[in-house]
Write a structure and sequence with these properties.
By secondary structure, this protein is α+β, with helices and mostly antiparallel strands. Helices cover 44% and strands 17% of the residues. Strand 2 and strand 3 form a beta hairpin. The strands form four sheets. The chain has a five-stranded antiparallel β-sheet with strand order 1-2-3-5-4, sandwiched between helices.
Length: 297
């Protein structure tokens, strides 16, 4: 995927844009593919001195997605005080759009760095709102995210998350009818499944571990899908793709408590993300989705 970002036309656009930003002649001399850490072609590009992160989208609304991503980062920084990458800007090119950020200096993760992730998440969760959702819509990866505000969490999770994503997965032809019926049954039971009433809480929205960068200054957040929701949504997605050490949750608990009923609801919150994965990636995620759903039917 790096090839896409350093072919002659895109590379020239990036070089010109970064040169204007830095006030000096900036040319790509080094490139590191970041495709495994992003849902778009992405790379860290450097002139040997000043590295940047570049992400490409060929979607018709790619520039809009990137604008929303930057808006989400600013919201998290301004409201919660968490670290974010320095935005450089968005380039519109004939075949799509490119998001440019300063590349952070990454450090290896030990116990302190894992705790930093938990602390950063707790800092975000200390910000409370009046309703679930957000005044503007967003994206969860490449998929539209309806954030229209509601006052009730089980209703919000049903109508703004599970139903739209279930419809999308069915429309893409990836959902067996039996599993669809099971998910509809779970949706009907949400008022009794969602646990104690919660105050609308600012969320990262896609808090899987690859969306945190460990630096000497602490955990830096990237790729948000922000809205006000249930804090357990973020906690459920930290180890969504692969396990994380308990240090993450230890760090979180240093700032905020975790309800003892969370482990029994973790899979419930993941149903939405697994529906998104089935929509985008196909049947490979049906096994995990089925297992999550069967905990609640």
């Amino acid at each position: 995927m790096t090839i896409k970002l350093i072919d002659i036309s895109l590379r020239s656009s990036v070089e010109q844009f970064v040169s204007e930003y830095t006030g000096r002649n900036w040319k790509v001399k080094e490139a590191r593919d970041m495709a495994d850490f992003a849902c778009h072609p992405a790379a860290i590009l450097s002139d040997g001195d000043y590295p940047i992160f570049a992400k490409f989208s060929d979607a018709p609304d790619g520039a809009e997605q990137f604008e929303i991503e930057l808006s989400g980062l600013r919201l998290l920084s301004e409201c919660a005080g968490v670290l974010i990458p320095t935005p450089i800007g968005i380039i519109r090119v004939p075949d799509g759009s490119i998001l440019i950020l300063e590349a952070a200096r990454v450090v290896d993760r030990g116990p302190r760095q894992w705790r930093d992730i938990g602390r950063a998440l707790a800092c975000i969760h200390k910000i409370k709102g009046e309703q679930f959702g957000l005044e503007s819509n967003g994206y969860f990866g490449p998929l539209p995210q309806d954030n229209a505000p509601m006052s009730d969490w089980p209703e919000f999770y049903a109508e703004r998350r599970l139903r739209p994503m279930l419809t999308r997965a069915v429309d893409f032809g990836h959902m067996p009818s039996s599993l669809t019926h099971q998910i509809e049954k779970v949706i009907s039971r949400l008022p009794g499944l969602c646990g104690p009433k919660v105050v609308p809480t600012l969320l990262h929205g896609d808090a899987q571990q690859n969306n945190f960068i460990s630096t000497d200054e602490g955990a830096m957040v990237i790729d948000p899908a922000v809205y006000f929701g249930h804090p357990e949504m973020d906690l459920a997605y930290v180890d969504y793709f692969e396990p994380v050490p308990e240090y993450v949750f230890d760090g979180y608990r240093e700032e905020l408590p975790i309800d003892p009923g969370f482990p029994g609801r973790r899979a419930l919150w993941r149903i939405w993300g697994l529906l998104a994965a089935v929509t985008v990636e196909g049947a490979g995620y049906l096994g995990r989705l089925t297992a999550a759903v069967e905990e609640y039917v």
